[in-house]
Amino acid sequence: MAFGVKEDNPVLKGGSKWSNLSIIFLFLSISCFVVPATGFALKYCRISYNNAICSNVKLHAVPQDIPSTVTGFDLSGNKISKIEVSDFKNLPILTVLDLGGNNISQIDKGAFANLISLNKLNLNGNKLTKLEDGTFDGLSNLTELRIKSNKITAVASSSFKPLTNLKTLDISFNVLKDITIVSSIFQHLPRLQELIIKKSYITIFQSWELTNTSVALASLDLSQNPIRVFRFTADVFPNLTRLNLGDSPRKKNITWEVRNKTFLRVATLDISELCLPLNDTKTLLESFDTSLTTLRMNKIKRNVTALINVSCTIPTLTTLKLQNNNLNSSDLFQACINLTEIDLAENQIKNVSDKSFRTLRGLMILSLRKNKLSAVPSVIRTIPTLVELDLSSNLISALDCHDFANMTRLKELSLKNNTITELKECLFKDLIRLQVLRLQTNKITKLNSAFSKHLPYLERLHLNGNQLDCIKEGYFKGLQGLKNLSLYENKITRLGKNSFIGMKNLTDMLLQYNKITDKGIHKSSFKDLINLRTLDLRENQIFYGASSALRDPPFSLLSRLESLSLLSQHHRKKSPGLPCNILEGLTNLLYFNIRNTELLSLRVGMFNYTPQLQHLDISSNDLSDVSPDLFAPIQNLTTLYISRTNLLSLDFLLKANLSKLQYMQARKNQFSVIREDVINSLPALEYVDLQGNSFTCDCDNALFVQWVENNNQTQVFDAYNFVCNYPPNVKGMKLLDLDMRSCTVDTGFICFVSTTCTILLFMLTSFIYHFLRWQMVYAYYLFLALLLDKKNKKSQNQYDAFISYNTHDEPWVVREMLPKLEGEQGWKLCLHHRDFQPGRSIIDNITDAIYGSRKTICVVSRKYLESEWCSREIQAASFRLFEEQKDVLIMVFLEEIPMSHLAPYYRMRKLLKRRTYLSWPKARDHAELFWEKVRQALETNEDPNDDRFLLRVVDKP
């Protein structure tokens, strides 16, 4: 039937759409069981700047919880005895691996095969006895290999074959003995540039045994080997520039044969501590007289003068190092006319003759450190070519104005570790090109304007470790080019006004470990320091008491300062807090350190002047509580140290809005519970250190434990050693060892159950929607009818019959049925187009019409059977028939419809098998009898067992 604009919908319309949604739900259910990435809480290691540090933690095996993103891996100082194939399988971008200081005696073949990016490998200090084939498989990118201090006695012929890019190899302090082993090393290392084989018990070194050598070799260290035969008859090292033969334990004659001086064209030769007879040493030196520029003869002890004379005959020699030879005079270089550098450190020189360096017209670098000089030697004034002079660690107590006269080319001067007490104004008047001056660790108490006029190009001045008590105005006004000033470890109590006037190029100033007080710092003290980047005032006595604000903030003129350290101020009582405007003017400050300054609080607003701050250290202060508003102005903070501050919780971070914080150290506080929302408030956090806190091991920390074990972004340092402090029954146990599954909901299982139920419910709903939709709708309204007692009673029937028909059959109903039943017989009929109430839903109107009528007459035709709404009406009528067990249904067929055509219409076919019906086509010639039968059907009572009236039974199609 039709009502208004009712369309007949196909049963499976939209089925494909619902099927797609079912598939989506299936994928959602599967996604709930994706295993999360391995957690970032390492049991034995920590990650620092993308390096895994696992040194000195007594490991017996390589840990397997290292993130695959590390580029450095330090396993030194452990007890690992074997390297297995699986140890480094998941570290594809590792570039540096340190396995030094273990007990490694075995390396499986292919153990390093997955380290395709490795550049440096350290195996020093282990127990390897042999290098097998396949030991270094996969290390084609290795450039540096160190295997010293093992017990290697044999090297397989192809063990180094994979190392095609190796440039540095240190295989010292092993037991190689035979030079043929060295030959096998060279055979497969075409790019080797540096080979170190110290103390390997090599006694014979002959060139003919070195086949297929590395033509790229530039440095060879054979020191501390008892070589008795050194024979070069071929040019096997054409690019060798550095050779070390020093500290040989052999004291007898050595067979030294170099057939052609061009075979060893080395530029640097080290024969320090070489215990050879003079003639053998002379023979050795004469082999290098065509290329040698640098010669080290430290700790020779014997025949030093003769060796100096021999070496100075080498025309190319420019640098001579003679440390620790017990020389008591420097009058040894009469024949050395070409030297530009002489190192005479650690000798016993007390005096230097005026004739010592007379012939050295081109001497540029002279070192006399660690001798027994009591004054600056007058001879240096006769060497105007000097560029560097080192007089450190002597016994010099006084400096005169003429000590550095005429040294106009000097760029670097070191006088540290002497006993100098004061400086004269005229001392540096001739050092117009000096760039570096080291005066640290003396006993200087007075500067006497030594830096007020001269040294215009000085860049670095070291005055630390002296006894200066104050910095007066104008002390450094002549140092207009100075960049670095070290004044730490003095006795300075105050900085005078305009102390650093004129020093506009100064970038770094170190004032730590003095006795500077808050009254000893003035705003004007830092006048002109417009380019200062680093100021270190730690370990002083700065104390502001109860001052909440300063009249003249001391650092307000240092607008470009990037690093300020005020840590460890020594005073007798605790400070209620730094003045809120102490950082005024520091708009570019990046680093601020106030660790261990005995503060009781930090005033809100003190960081209003430092919007660029990135690193903050407030550790070791008795703060107890920190306001989240303190951090409001420093949203760029990336590093925060809050260890040993007696903080009870980290809840202040919830409102601090530190969205860029990456590193946080919060050791040894009073944290017992770490809340999940605190962690979630730090989205960029990569490293957190919570060592030494008193954790509560109950359900309050269950979410924190779960986060530690499962998160793959933040490294929780030493998490596996967190110890429980409460409740008493688990005190001393490890936090991560406790089973807290009973505290947390198994989200995986819940996800499985909920998604399974959702899918089943979705499929059931989809099935009902497509196949039982109207049955459910009618059942719903039937339930409402029962609930509201809307069932039709005889006394409540408004109509004698409800006519159910299709719109296409409406002409027959109006012209034939309505005049007969209403006009002639007087029945009250209900027709949808006439009696349904406008505005109500169709379902409500149908239900009320069926239950408000004594009978329902279904006018059946082919169109009727195809109509979805008509099928719902006959369903509702059959529901009433089933529910009330009354004869309330009259079926009238307008067309002859074979039973085979009724197969798709299950409900109609079922009714026809149990009930008789009226056929209009067969009664058309006897219309009066047809309408009489209809009248009789309407008059009969509604008992289905009453047989007083029978319709004419026609042949069933």
From TrEMBL:
List the InterPro entries hit by this protein, alphabetically: Cys-rich_flank_reg_C, Leu-rich_rpt, Leu-rich_rpt_typical-subtyp, LRR_dom_sf, TIR_dom, Toll_tir_struct_dom_sf
Which Pfam families does its entry note? LRR_1, LRR_8, TIR
Q: Which residue intervals define the domain TIR in the entry? A: 797-938
**Keywords, in A-Z order:** Glycoprotein, Immunity, Inflammatory response, Innate immunity, Leucine-rich repeat, Membrane, Receptor, Repeat, Signal, Transmembrane, Transmembrane helix
Q: What is its main location?
A: membrane
Gene3D superfamilies registered for this protein in UniProt: Ribonuclease Inhibitor, Toll/interleukin-1 receptor homology (TIR) domain
Q: Name one GO molecular function term.
A: signaling receptor activity
Q: Name one GO cellular component term.
A: plasma membrane
Bilayer topology? Single-pass type I membrane protein
State which residue ranges cross the membrane. 20-42, 743-765
Q: Which PROSITE patterns match?
A: LRR, PROKAR_LIPOPROTEIN, TIR
The record's subcellular location field reads: Membrane
| Biological-process GO terms, alphabetical | inflammatory response; innate immune response; toll-like receptor signaling pathway
Q: Which family does it belong to?
A: Belongs to the Toll-like receptor family.
Name this polypeptide is given: Toll-like receptor 13
In its UniProt entry, the species of origin is given as Scomber scombrus
